[in-house]
Amino acid sequence: MIIDIITVLPELMVSPLSHSILQRAKDKQLLEINLIDLREFGIGRHRQVDDYAFGGGAGMVMMAEPLVNCIESLQKKANYDEIIYFSPDGRKFDQKCANRLSLQGRLLLICGHYKGIDQRVRDHWVTMEISIGDYVLSGGELAAAVLVDAVGRLIPGVLNDSCSALTDSFQDDMLAPPVYTRPEDFRGHKVPDVLLSGHEAKIEEWRYEQSMRITRNKRPDLLRDED
Ligand code: ADE
After folding, report:
1. Is the CB of 137 inside a 6 Å radius of any atom of ligand 1?
2. Are residues 148 and 188 in the same domain?
């Protein structure tokens, strides 16, 4: 998969996308991430990318021209399955959306700043709008990093243990069961006996029951979620 990211802060994005599983995915050439600095498409000597909002009001708006010039220059070299814009009013990002996107070949992510981007870009170039939660970030970069992390680890072949993504929280609308590691007794707090029993079927059953219990207690809405 190739993910191109348009941002005015490429430096902010380097570290979150260069460690752990994402770095491994890049090393295995299963994932390529390209950061495109929108300033290179800025207008005039100052490489301007934002301007005052028509109608007044606080905050600057990212201009259509630099953004569309940037998108179109990328489209000359690539076909995108989705052009995604990050905004608090987008559809809420979840594991189902991550699963679906992980099967795509090439994505273009647009990180907004200030008051957002000119609506005409959203109306005519963007194909999908995503929010990572009901709060306002100062820019789309951290939202983009969240999406790339959640999607990148699901790309077939990225995780060593091919089953491991299947047991994640949310993967089948259930939260993950508790996990323990050595020692068996930590300051008098013991690991549940069943996990030490070596009895695979019993361990599976225990994990399922724990998942159900935790989901019912913490996120009962997941068990009612139909789609
Ligand atoms: N940009 C600003 N806030 C955001 C949010 N909650 N999700 C995605 N992009 C954003």
Report:
1. yes
2. no
CATH code, domain with 55: 3.40.1280.10
Q: What is the pLDDT of residues 31-81, one digit of tens each?
A: 999 999 999 999 999 999 999 999 999 999 999 999 999 999 999 999 999
Closest atom of ligand 1 to CA, residue 86 = 9
Helices (H), 76-199: 95-102, 119-124, 141-152
For residue 122, the CA-to-ligand 1 centroid distance in Å is 15
Of all protein residues, the one whose alpha carbon is nearest to atom 5 of ligand 1 is: 88
Let me know if residue 163 belongs to a domain.
Answer: no
For residue 129, the cross-strand partners are 85
End-of-domain residue from the set 121, 152, 183: 152
The gap between the terminal CA atoms of the chain, to the nearest Å, is 26
CA distance 36 to 96: 27
Q: For the segment 98-127, what is each residue's pLDDT rounded down to a tens digit?
A: 999 999 999 999 999 879 999 999 999 999
Q: Measured at the alpha carbon of residue 55, what is the angle toward residues 54 and 59, in degrees to the nearest 5?
A: 70
Could you tell me if 145 and 179 lie in one domain? no
Q: How far is the CA of 164 from the centre of ligand 1 (A)?
A: 29
Q: How far apart are CA 54 and CA 61, in angstroms?
A: 9
Residue range of the domain that includes 215: 172-223
- In short, whether 92's Cβ falls inside 6 Å of ligand 1 is no
| CB of 140 closer than 6 angstroms to any ligand 1 atom | yes
> Is 116 in the same domain as 63?
yes
Q: pTM, whole model, 2 decimals?
A: 0.95
CA distance 55 to 8: 25
